[in-house]
Amino acid sequence: MFRLEKRPQPSQFWTLLTPIIAVVATMIAGGLLFALLGKAPIEAIRTIFWDPLFSEFAWYYRPQILIKAAPLILIGIGLSLGFRAGVWNIGAEGQFILGAIFGAGAGLAFYPADYWFIFPLMVIAGAFGGMLWALIPALLKTRFGTNEILVSLMLVYVAEHILSSVSFGLLKNPEGHGFPGSRNLQQYEAASNAEIIAGTGIHWGVIAALLAVIAAYVLLNRHIIGYQIRLTGQAPRAARFAGVRPNLLIIFCMGLSGALAGVAGMFEVAGPMGQISVDFNQGLGFTAIIVAFLGRLHPVGILFAGMLLALTSVGGDIAQSNLGLPAASIKAFQGMLLFFILASDVLSNFRVRIGTAETA
Amino acid sequence: MDLSTINPVVLIATLMVAATPILLAATGELVAEKSGVLNLGVEGMMITGAICGFAVAVETGSPFFGFIAAAIGGALLSLIFGVLTQILLANQVATGLALTLFGLGLSALLGQSYAGIKPPSTFKLDMPLISDIPVLGPILFNHDLMVYVSIGLVALVWAALKYSRIGLVVRAVGENHEAAHALGYKVVRIRLLAIMFGGACAGLGGAYLSLIRVPQWTEGMTAGAGWIALAIVVFGSWKPWRVLLGAYLFGGVTGLQLNLQVAGADIPVEYLSMAPYLITIIVLVIMSADKSRAALSAPASLGKVFHATS
């Protein structure tokens, strides 16, 4: 048998290596899963990981990866700050929806006027909407000690019902022939989050995601709040003695992650999705949790993890149309990835010794 | 709106049905949490149970085998969580989330060819004389078997935790794993068993949804029931009968909300459908506001990683 010996501090080497181990393990386990479904495993893995980047249609898929990665990175960055400090905001999906509703609402309020400030206003409204939704669990946590995990998660379902309510009511397209869903923002230039450079997939959300990575890096490494976040995560009691105010930190982490999720929702509704509709959300808020962990809660790691998860999403779509792989299998695949990353964490926190312990 | 269409007797009878899946899952989670494990994967285990139960019931034509398969499916899935958190010492919150995400994907994958099928119907208690007693008949003696099983399970868990040696050991492990370990109890083994019990119960709860309550298979059909079960455990202060009360109160809210929709209340459907989630939040706030009580009733080692050093 093997036994585990706690390392005095997590191994740098293994911390960097574990995501790669996890991805390889997921490929193997995923291949087995696809084989069980009666699909050629190697072909399926190649379609998911290779084709979006290097196949003959890669010119189409590569921009898609950026488009899909942007919201994942934005949300993942926000979540990682909280996760580091032991603040578990898992309702990013709901904050994403609220951000989209607020953002789209702010834009549509001016329809069909054409002012320069409409789009920036939508960004602010989106951030505000997401932050508002995240501050509910934050304030309940700080005021009453209510579990933020359950409250933020419950609010996802509430947000989904609000989404369907506004698609049928408040934001419904008056010229939509009675169909649910808002006006298409892509056709409303002042509010549209269009591609900045044609054919690259780069829209304002991608720029914002990159800025968020840099800002989070600076915050964590060069700013007192980042220090407090790291300290609280590693030693909550020590943090308190060092003058960290836990309640303020909870509000900061939740509010910021909510704002980032909200902004992501706003960029999504104004760009790739185009409109508020009943099935607007596709679980990006949950996939971002995987992104945050796969990226080791580190801004640069999250950048890569977001790209990787976006790659598997795009690849999954290709596999779905080319190989008839069920859409759900890619979700199971991504869930597996999170298992493997969590499992391989043991290598960075512990030394594995073979053989039984000699009795002291 | 016509409130007279809401019949209190029917409402109570339906609330028991609405509450049963959550009650089953919450009872299982209660045992896991009593042993000191916070498994946030209830939703994933429930939905996996829902599809395992549904698929096996359709293939064999027997709901009984369906429920057995659901319990096994839920327990197997929870074993992944068990291995990760107990043996590989992974963070319980993150692993629980992973279990939910994976369970939702896996169930959608398994359930592809089962959408739109009607499952075999389940045995329903219908005793000619007793079931016809006004008021009491429909409430007490006119349900499917699983409603009684779930109540029996609560009684069993209550008695086991309170009076049996096994219950005492589980509680000891949950309150102070270092001390339990020093006394020679196998902390990891006991927790793995508690986790699997929780998984099996969540699986049963999921199968109740797909086989009896709805009855149909649709992707993501649990719609947060697993998370509500987690909230109910907090609401019940980790006491089995209070968990039952919480589940039935919650079932009542769901039932009333559906009844109001049917009665044509002036409130839009979306707002009525939100009610169960909002009420869960309110209940959580009320429970946690009383800080001294919340801190006393939660198992002391809940969610903490146990690493035997000697």
TrEMBL record, chain A:
UniProt key word Zinc-finger: no
Topology relative to the membrane: Multi-pass membrane protein
UniProt keyword list: Cell membrane, Membrane, Transmembrane, Transmembrane helix
Keyword Endoplasmic reticulum recorded: no
Membrane-spanning intervals of the chain: 12-37, 65-83, 95-111, 117-140, 149-171, 202-220, 247-267, 287-311, 323-343
Location(s) in or outside the cell: Cell membrane
PANTHER family reported in the protein's UniProt record: ABC TRANSPORTER, PERMEASE PROTEIN, GUANOSINE ABC TRANSPORTER PERMEASE PROTEIN NUPP
Lineage top rank: taxon: Bacteria
Organism for this UniProt entry: Pseudohalocynthiibacter aestuariivivens
Name of the protein described by the UniProt record: ABC transporter permease
From TrEMBL, chain B:
Keywords assigned: Cell membrane, Membrane, Transmembrane, Transmembrane helix
One Pfam family hit: BPD_transp_2
Chief place where the protein resides: membrane
Transmembrane segments: 6-25, 37-58, 64-84, 96-115, 135-161, 192-214, 220-238, 245-265, 271-289
Keyword Transmembrane helix applies: yes
CDD domains in alphabetical order: TM_PBP1_transp_TpRbsC_like (cd06580)
Membrane topology, from the record: Multi-pass membrane protein
Protein name stated in the entry: ABC transporter permease
Organism ancestry: Bacteria, Pseudomonadati, Pseudomonadota, Alphaproteobacteria, Rhodobacterales
